[in-house]
Structures are given as structure tokens and as C-alpha cells.
Design goal:
CATH superfamily: Vaccinia Virus protein VP39
CATH topology: Rossmann fold
Order of helices and strands: HHEHEHEHEHEHEE
CATH class: Alpha Beta
Number of domains: 1
Radius of gyration: 16 Å
Number of strands: 7
Helix content: 25-40%
Distance between the termini: 33 Å
Largest sheet: 7 strands, mixed
Bound molecules: S-adenosyl-L-homocysteine, magnesium ion
Strand order of the largest sheet: 3-2-1-4-5-7-6
Shape: globular
CATH architecture: 3-Layer(aba) Sandwich
Length: 198
Amino acid sequence: MNKVELAKIKEKALQDHIPIIMDETLEVIEKELERFKLNKILEIGTAVGYSAICFSEFLNADGRIDTIEREKDRVEEARENIKKAEVGDKINIIEGDAVEILPTLNEKYDMVFIDASKGKYPFFLKEALRLLAPNGIIFADNVLYKGYVLSDYNKHKQRTAVRNLREFLKEVNELQENKQFNTKVLEVGDGLAIVSRM
Ligand code: SAH
Ligand code: MG
């Protein structure tokens, strides 16, 4: 991977106010992944490809990332960025709405990164669990949404997102209670949920 290009991609994304993964969140994910072998990664929410390029470093030699993005302009920019970063052969961008794309996928993924519309997190979790390999791990970003999710805050234009994130966290807790999964919700960045099999 070309780190000089990656730094430029990050700088431009921040200037353009694209909500790319925060450094501290990326560090936590990197640490968690030390004990995993990653052949296939699924990302929901590519934006301009920054996180996918970062994750490509965690892949096995012949590993691949499928990443979904619905905004055409972002897909185009992401395609240019993965070429510049010299990881184009590792990252497959799927253009379209994840709500429609996910049900058509049937592969198993060692890692799923959920980082798209917050109102859809319960659906994304359901699909991520269906697509997860036996020893896979799921990360979901922005699950605490600037603190709104755990406060009594409910008068806001984003209340549907907040309600659905609360539903998502409830489902994550139930996975833990049923002893099927190990789950954690960390206050790092904008809130990071981690779900892995026991
Ligand atoms: N993972 C990226 C940031 C993603 S920002 C990074 O860290 O670098 C969230 C992206 O998800 C936005 O570009 C938005 O257009 C896209 N998105 C939101 N809802 C979506 C959906 N339902 N299907 C596909 N893409 C979606
Ligand atoms: Mg995010």
C-alpha cells in the first residue's frame, strides 16, 4: 500500500467533511484483529474508500474486501483512491443501496464493518450475522451517535436514527445474554460495537 497517497486521501476526506473512521477507532479494531485471520471483509459504507484501504493491510495475501456505497460520486472517488493507494486488486466496490445489496450476498466474511445509515443498523446487524464466517467478527461504528443514544435525548430530527441505534444495541445485548456471542460497546470515537463468536 502507498502510505503517502493514503495520507493525502485522508486529508482530502477530512477537508470535504466525509465522516471517515477516527484514528482511535481504527487502533482499537487493529488490536482486536491481531487474533483473526482475514480472507474476506465486508464493509457497509465505503464513502471515498479510506477505511477499506486501511483494512486492506489486515488481509491475508490473497484476501479481498467487498464494500458497498450508494452515492455515485463517492463510488467514483473511492475507485480512484484505491488505485492511487495501490490496493485496487484487493477492494471490490459494489455500487448500490446496502438494504438491497446485502440480501443478494451469500459468501461468508471473516469481518463485517457496519458504517452506513444509522436508521438501518438493526437490519445491517441481521444481515452481518447471516453472512458471518464461523470465527468472524463484526464492528459497528457510530453506535453512540454523539452521545444521543445513551442520553434521554429524543427531541431531534435524528430521532429515528437514535431509536434504531437503541434497538441495535438491545439486540447486541441479547446476543451476549444468549451466550452465542461476545459483545462489547466502547466509547471510543463515536461509539464502536464489537460482536464476535464465543
Ligand atoms: N467507512 C468510511 C466512511 C463511511 S461514511 C470510512 O471510514 O472511510 C458512510 C457512507 O455510507 C456514506 O458515504 C453514505 O453515502 C453511505 N451509505 C449510507 N447508507 C447507505 C446504504 N443504505 N447503502 C449504501 N451506502 C450507504
Ligand atoms: Mg463511521
